[in-house]
Write a structure and sequence with these properties.
The complex is a heterodimer of chains A (246) and B (237). Chain A has 8 helices and no strands. Chain A has helices at residues 2-18, 50-77, 90-101, 116-140, 146-151, 155-183, 188-193, 211-214. The longest helix of chain A is centred in the C-terminal third of the chain and has 29 residues, at 155-183. Chain A is elongated and about 65 Å long. Chain B is of the alpha+beta class. Chain B folds into 2 domains: 5-49; 60-228, Oxidoreductase, molybdopterin-binding domain (Sulfite Oxidase, Chain A, domain 2, Alpha-Beta Complex), CATH 3.90.420. The chains are: A mainly alpha (246), B alpha+beta (237).
Amino acid sequence: MNAVAIVIMVGSGLRIFNAYPAFARRGETFRWYPFEHKSIPLNLTFGGWLGGARHWHFAMMWVLVVNGLVYLAFVFLHGEWRDLVPRRNDPRDAIEMMKFYLFIKKRHPHQGKHNALQKSAYFALPLVSALAVVSGIAIWKPVQLAWLANLLGGYVWARYWHFVAMTIIVVLSVIHVFMVFAVDPYSIRSMVTGRYNPNASPEARNARPFYHLFYKPTFPVSDADVVPGAIAPPLPPKNPSDGIEI
Amino acid sequence: MSIDRRDFLSLSGSALYAAILAGCNSKGPRTAQRLIKYAERKNEVVERALFRHTSMDATQSGAHAAGNKLPSYFISKTVPVWDEGVRGKWTLEVGGMVAKPVTLSMDDLLHLPRVANRVNHYCVEGWTAVETWTGVPMRELAKLVQPDANAKFVDFQSFDDGYHESWDMEGALHPQTVVAYALDGTMLGPAHGAPARVYSPVKLGYKNTKYLTKIAFMPVANGGYWSDAGYEWYGGV
């Protein structure tokens, strides 16, 4: 549902942007956007026309704001924020993760619930979303809530920050969805139900993209292959008809 | 059978998803239209609750006036120009549910209290432009005609092929809402709504009727050119 709402929000936002695909105040120039007055391709937009897109945008904003607040409440009430706050070693670990994905490093770095790259993405997303919401309110009500627009540098800049926040959210989402399917498609079940069975995921999900397509479990796993602290490798099924228990 | 929190979440999630799919399959656009209409009504409640007469628009220091870069439009086939030979002297009628309706000539307007507001123009398309609008505050005109207590809306009508937009009373009586006859220190030209137009930074550009002929105080709103075409009727910023 969130995914649908975000797609509608981004599509309708781009449609609104297309009505004036630039940031400059009339009679001025704006130097911080290289594509001033270049339209967004129409098939990336939603709402059909400016008025329709505005209606969708102003309807979906409530869905996303309420969902965001529920998410924050859950993360805090369940203490899951502990898995997301940045730690001192995160930058180093994030570089290690990148090396792993780029085949520079053979072994998957040690991690907790999320790896360092995931952690920084999941930590950044609520912050960027907050910027999207605040800048959105600022350009919705630049006179009645002028203080908010002024906080962001005025209407023109608030509109710019709204666009930047959207771009970051889109980039993070695209990477996220790609990694879900490419690294650990078995985790989709956990996104819906909340249950995660690490035994179902290839190499206990510590794999490179598309690894699961070629993954043939070999058993038994020697002790030398077990990375200390990593999630246990999958157990072999008892007989072929059992399959993997979920 | 007991249902724990996760079961509940997954069940309700599936149910919601099924409902959305069913909605899309059976009625599609019509359900969606109802949904966004509902959202528009609720948003208007929020917007009117946020509205303050004390919230003023101010231009940023260093912002340049748009000057001749200010876009203009009209809905007639050609630029609407008031032809005195055909229509006689231009006047502005201020009436409807008021105690003392008046018909004002340009000379009358020029002798009423005058303000010059350097403000932003917020277009529905997303651009802004800085301009100085000189004219009579709507508050002064309201003082003159004394609207009825039951008048909750104001309609601004024009000679531009029936173009009009009705406003909520609060927006119409905001201190920065003026019946403007000059732009950037010179009398309005035909492109920007001569002889006079309504101008307010608290409404999106399309709510600001140009080529003004009549201001009517009313008990109910009667839509408007762009609001009937599907843009938000409230159009406040």
